[in-house]
Design brief:
With 309 residues, the chain is α+β, with helices and mostly antiparallel strands. It folds into 2 domains: 155 residues, Ribosomal Protein S5, domain 2; 127 residues, Alpha-Beta Plaits (2-Layer Sandwich). 36% of the residues lie in helices and 26% in strands. The chain contains 9 helices and 9 strands. The strands form 2 sheets. Strands 1, 2, 3, 4 and 5 form a 5-stranded antiparallel β-sheet that branches. It is globular and about 60 Å long. The chain starts with a strand and ends in a 21-residue tail after the last strand. 40% of the residues are buried.
């Protein structure tokens, strides 16, 4: 009998903070947005049919990371089902907005619904991280996360309510290739990242939006030494002239974001026009942060731990 399931996962507008801790572990703190991936999945008994094989081949070709994650999970469960799925997403690809992570997590959530199984969050993180570094979007709300290892540092019961004016410098960034780069930081720089993480953690606990934005801006500034964006100075200037809270970076992507508090009395058209005049030729899009995308909390889905890897 076929089994079906549907799963969703939001993207992340880069990171509130990203760097390297004193122990040498790369880390980030995600920033969930409303843009999301949705997967409708069907598991069938394995049998050969030309049409079915062609559909599997197309799915594997178009969404290789998601397909591999699902196949690994099915193997861990001792299942040989053929896996068919359709994916819809409004997350820009290759831009640092976590499109691949969202696709994989949406697929895993669809699989949990189809099979009525539960997985632990650290297991999901390990499965995804074996395919590529990711933003920890399978955990609730905002997470501090070791993105190359798939391990949670801390989870916060809040997503800072921002409206983000995103400016795209163009091109794409390969997350896997980027994260193979060595980030050469001194011990003093690594210690400073620990202080920033501690400050951001306290701000997230206190729901202090201005301090969150301040840390995000500092993180974006420091990252210029690692992966510079040519527009950074002008974006900071226009953010200041607009009275914005700060600047957000897609640290391994092509977007910068100007942060405004959600719910503020904001003339979107006037702001957009001023930014376009300052940075002509740049693609501009508005984003909003978002908490959990469904009433079914992902944490409730993570209990059983298979033995993949």
């Amino acid at each position: 009998m076929d089994r079906e399931g549907t799963g969703q996962c939001c993207g992340s507008f880069g990171e509130l903070l990203q760097g390297v801790l004193p122990n040498g572990h790369k880390f980030l703190v995600n920033c969930r947005i409303r843009n999301r991936s949705t997967i409708r999945l069907r598991l069938t008994e394995p049998y050969y049919a030309p049409e079915k094989e062609a559909m599997i081949a197309r799915t594997h070709e178009r969404f290789p990371k998601t397909y591999k994650a699902l196949r690994n999970l099915l193997a861990d469960l001792g299942r040989r089902d053929d896996c068919l799925f359709e994916l819809e997403s409004d997350i820009p690809i290759g831009k640092g907005l976590s499109s691949s992570t969202a696709d994989m997590v949406a697929g895993i959530r669809a699989l949990t619904e189809a099979l009525a199984v539960k997985f632990k969050g650290d297991y999901i993180g390990r499965v995804i991280s074996e395919i590529e570094p990711n933003d920890g979007l399978h955990f609730d709300n905002t997470s501090a996360y070791l993105h190359a290892e798939g391990r949670l540092i801390a989870n916060f019961d809040w997503v800072p309510p921002f409206r983000i004016l995103g400016l795209d410098e163009g091109g794409t960034c390969d997350t896997v290739a980027f994260n193979l780069r060595r980030i050469a930081l001194t011990s003093r720089q690594q210690s400073h990242y620990q202080v920033m993480l501690d400050t951001l953690s306290a701000a997230l606990e206190a729901r202090d939006l201005r301090t969150v934005a301040s840390i995000a801006t500092e993180s974006a500034t420091l990252w210029q030494a690692v992966y510079p964006k040519v527009d950074f100075g002008r974006v900071c200037d226009v953010a200041q002239s607009l009275g914005a809270l700060g600047v957000l970076n897609t640290h391994s992507g092509t977007f910068l974001g100007i942060l405004f508090p959600d719910g503020a009395d904001l003339d979107v058209d006037a702001v957009t026009a001023e930014v376009k005049a300052t940075l002509p030729g740049r693609a501009i899009a508005w984003f909003e942060t978002s908490g959990l995308e469904s009433s079914r909390r992902p944490a409730d889905m993570f209990e059983k731990v298979p033995t993949h890897g």
